[in-house]
Amino acid sequence: MDDSVIIKTDLLTKRFHVGTGEFTALHHISLTFRRGEFAGLVGPSGSGKTTLLNIIGTLDSPTEGDVEVIGHSVSGLTHQQAANLRNHNIGFIFQTYNLLPVYNVYENIEFALLLQNRSSGERKKAVMEALEWVGLTDKLNSRPSQLSGGECQRVAIARAMVKRPLLVLADEPSANLDAKNSHNIVQTMKILNKELNTTFIFATHDEKVMLYLDRIITLNDGVVEEDKMILNR
Ligand SMILES: Nc1ncnc2c1ncn2[C@@H]1O[C@H](COP(=O)(O)OP(=O)(O)O)[C@@H](O)[C@H]1O
Ligand SMILES: [Mg+2]
What we know:
There is one protein chain. The protein has 233 residues and is of the alpha/beta class. The chain is built from 7 helices and 10 strands. The protein has helices spanning 49-56, 79-89, 105-114, 120-133, 149-161, 179-196, 207-210; strands spanning 5-18, 21-34, 38-42, 64-69, 72-73, 90-94, 167-171, 199-203, 215-220, 223-229. Strands 6-7-8-3-9-10 form a 6-stranded mixed beta sheet, with helices on both faces. Strand 7 (167-171), helix 6 (179-196) and strand 8 (199-203) form a beta-alpha-beta unit. The longest helix is centred in the C-terminal third of the chain and has 18 residues, at 179-196. The protein is globular, with a radius of gyration of 17 Å. The two termini are 14 Å apart. The chain binds adenosine-5'-diphosphate (ADP) and magnesium ion (MG).
């Protein structure tokens, strides 16, 4: 694992306007994530996991403090620059898969590459490889409605990985899956983490996912309560 810093948050605070007042969802978060980490934000519902993941992914911005994403200070990026950073370097995986229902499996994965300028030949090679990574080569013509939840999440993993991003952000990826599928999708991500040195950051409160993490950051009421490395995984 090389030691390059992928994410650095510096005294990051996020407040939301609620009614006439304000609510602090994240308070003074200072965290560094390095290349190749397989890390998780854990903590009860409402502790700030999704808010932090969205800010790390440049989908939202901090109220105070700064975030550096792959060497770029997010506060200095235009919307277009942030979009470029995401399109090339960050893959997203969500609880509800977020696949496009009218597209088949192949097209859903290829979609991530249409935002980049790649030839159709290059796209096909990359999509077929991503399908192999998740074991869905035989389902490339299926629509999401014809797949199980576990298969849908595998398509979402392939869509996140097809551009070979430096970073994948996964928000409760196992929340709609049974135990067997939860283990399967995390094992698949762990293999890709090792083989491609992709950094993964999860938001999860699933014990089955936590089993595989090599770093567990516990959030409570928007504060980092514990940051623990787990060796030998
Ligand atoms: N857009 C928003 N406006 C107001 N409050 C929000 C908004 N987004 C999140 N919150 C609040 O911030 C807190 C953290 O939310 P969230 O990051 O979704 O937690 P988690 O993912 O850990 O369940 C919650 O209390 C939530 O209600
Ligand atoms: Mg959440």
